[in-house]
Amino acid sequence: MASKEPLGYMSDKAMIDTLLNTDLKDIPQKPNWVDGSGLSRYNLFSPQAKVYILNKLQTEFGIKRLKAILPTGSTGTFKNYYLRDSGYIYAKTGSLSNLLH
């Protein structure tokens, strides 16, 4: 669905190719990115690529927006964790398996 507005049609592959050739053209290690679900075990991003994306998000949108998106102690999926570190630790939650090395 994310491709509908910029491309005029819906296509995971076309949107992924577009992003890798534009916004993410300088990503240090090209990911194996097969779909846009965020759930596929076939999507493989290296830790270096994930850091690159986080830095790019911070540069383009600012730390305030990132903090609003990512959970911290006592919020979201961290509701019962990192209570004393709330406001200091922000993280992507969910699976981090299947990383490229």
Provide a count of the helices: 4
SSE class:
mainly alpha
- Mean pLDDT equals 85
Strand content: under 5%
* Helix and strand pattern: HHHH
Q: What are the low-pLDDT stretches, counting only 5+ consecutive residues below 50?
A: none
- Overall 3D shape: elongated
Helix content: 25-40%
Cα end-to-end separation = 30 Å
Number of strands: 0
Main sheet attributes: strand count, strand direction, barrel closure: none
Q: Mind telling me the C-alpha Rg?
A: 15 Å
Give the helix/strand layout:
Elements: H1 4-7, H2 12-21, H3 47-61, H4 63-69
Describe this structure in words.
With 101 residues, the protein is an all-alpha fold. The protein has a domain at 28-78. The chain has 4 helices and no strands. The protein has helices at 4-7, 12-21, 47-61, 63-69. The chain starts with a helix and ends in a 32-residue tail after the last helix.
